[in-house]
Amino acid sequence: MITYRLTTLDDGKYLKEWLLQEGVQEGFPMSTPSEVDDAVSRWISFAPYKASVTALDDEKPVGLATLYLNPYKKLVHQCECGILVATDFQSRGIGKGLMKELFSLAKTFHIELLSLQVQTHNQRAIKLYEQFGFKTFAEQTHWLKNEEGSYGGRLLMECPVE
Amino acid sequence: MNDEVDIRYTEADDAPYLKKWLSDPTTARWWPTLHTDEAELNHAVANWIGFYRHMSSLTTTRKGKPVGIATLCLQPYRKLSHQAEISIVVAPDERNKGIGTDLMRNLIHLAKTAFKLELIHLNVYADNPAAHLYSRFGFKSFGYQEKWIREADGSYTSRTFMELHLNEYHDPKSQNQSHRTNAGEKSPA
């Protein structure tokens, strides 16, 4: 059974583990262990602000979603978010559950608008975001460059928090 | 422009000038920081000026005093290192003198030669006249966000995302006579 709780700093090691699983990095711009460390430390730094939620299978973390709270007052009505589910636990509705938790959490911060970025090829994630009402407001075709020289695009999407 | 004006790499000591410009309400309306908030300004200035360490930031001076800063905000990850977001600001009393145009030309040169960048991008707030400068250099819109800033009165300010593929870049020099010649070909000393 899947339950949800606020993220703790200790969850960072699971986040790192998931990001280093085979295939996962194709969905993210990080490509070396030290880049993954950098991303994990940024992501997990919002845990002490109670701006991050972790999905548990029994006691074990299997997914995580975070609000990247904005540091400036003119931006506090909106916020970028990030979401990740461990490879072995995908397609079980955990992404959907995390997204619901994230919207509840956003309300506690009086956030009116959630945004995120996703790579153009990640159709599964895009479908999930669209189900929740996210709409694309920007698309960049040459955002990422793979080692062999091919390019990847990103979409920026947003959704009002009702 | 004339001989009083020069361009060089940004130095840590330029920070107080950047902070002063961002504290000016006519400049601050184009930036996410609140011009009256000391902590926000310090945070933003430290992040911005920090790129001096990578020599990816340029400062224009008049009689030795900074009047504008343009920066390549280099990406931390390898797969993103072919592109960078850029930031440009000109002192409030130095606008409309070609400082921004000159900075942009030199920044593009730096991006291509020193960092081998293929793509630079930025976002510009609604009604910011700088959008014309970006268009003149060939920047094209790739997105628009309506409710980016919530102003103190509850209204919203939108932003437009623009990008420039540097292999498609053509110097718009012929359309502008106000700047000195050859500035674009010269790397900062």
Written overview of the protein:
The complex is a heterodimer of chains A (162) and B (189). With 162 residues, chain A is α+β, with helices and mostly antiparallel strands. Chain A has a single domain (2-115), classed as 3-Layer(aba) Sandwich (Aminopeptidase). Helix content of chain A is 28%, strand content 35%. Chain A contains four helices and seven strands. Chain A has helices at residues 12-20, 33-44, 94-108, 123-131; strands at 2-6, 52-57, 60-68, 78-85, 113-119, 135-145, 151-160. Chain A has a seven-stranded mixed beta sheet with strand order 1-2-3-4-5-7-6, sandwiched between helices. The longest helix of chain A is centred in the middle third of the chain and has 15 residues, at 94-108. Chain A starts with a strand and ends with a strand. In chain A, 35% of the residues are buried. The model of chain B is unreliable at 177-186 (pLDDT under 50). Chain B has a seven-stranded mixed beta sheet, sandwiched between helices. Chain B has a single domain (5-180), classed as Aminopeptidase (3-Layer(aba) Sandwich), CATH 3.40.630. Chain B is built from five helices and seven strands. Chain B is an alpha+beta fold. Chain B is 24% helix and 30% strand. Chain B has helices at residues 15-22, 25-28, 38-49, 99-113, 130-136, and strands at residues 5-9, 57-62, 65-74, 83-90, 119-125, 140-150, 156-165. In chain B, β3 (65-74) and β4 (83-90) form a beta hairpin. Chain B is globular and about 45 Å long. The A-B interface holds A 29-32, 35, 38, 70-78, 112-113, 115, 137-147, 156, 158 and B 32-34, 37, 40, 43-44, 75-83, 118-119, 121, 142-151, 161, 163, 165.
